[in-house]
Amino acid sequence: MANTVLVSVGENVSGPAWIGNVEPFVQSVMKKFGIDGEEISVLFCDDAFIRTLNREYRNIDSPTDVLSFENGETYEDGEGTTWKCAGDIAVSLETLPKNAAYFMTDENSELKRLLVHGLLHLNGYDHGEEHIEAGRAPVCDMLVKQEKALAELSGEIIIR
Fold this sequence. Notes:
Elements: E1 4-9, H1 22-32, E2 38-45, H2 47-58, E3 66-76, E4 82-92, H3 95-102, H4 107-122, H5 141-152
Parallel strand pairs: 1-2, 2-4
Antiparallel strand pairs: 3-4
């Protein structure tokens, strides 16, 4: 079977030129993780929108880089195939360059990190209070898996 990845851009956000490269990248990550039969959506938004989501769903009144909303429901399509609605990933295009500067990396690498991070959350992984910090190796399973996958996907290009 395959996976379905829906990519969109929120209101008040101009669609970046590289938007068409997101779906193939996410598909390759899903294949790497052995994910099959899932449907996810990726929304690129601004800080104001992600701040609203963060406030409504996490009671944190500030913007963030990426949020994941796990769904987990299943449905059967017209051909009898069962799909899992894994959920939604929201990425702030305003926070992306700030993160890249903080981590002393390029925006392409940071975007890949955010997408892998969101995808792992949609598939049941959690990192508790641990976060990626510049100059510190992660300890928890989720972040170790994330960083290993990113190293293996280092040649993948989303933002040219």
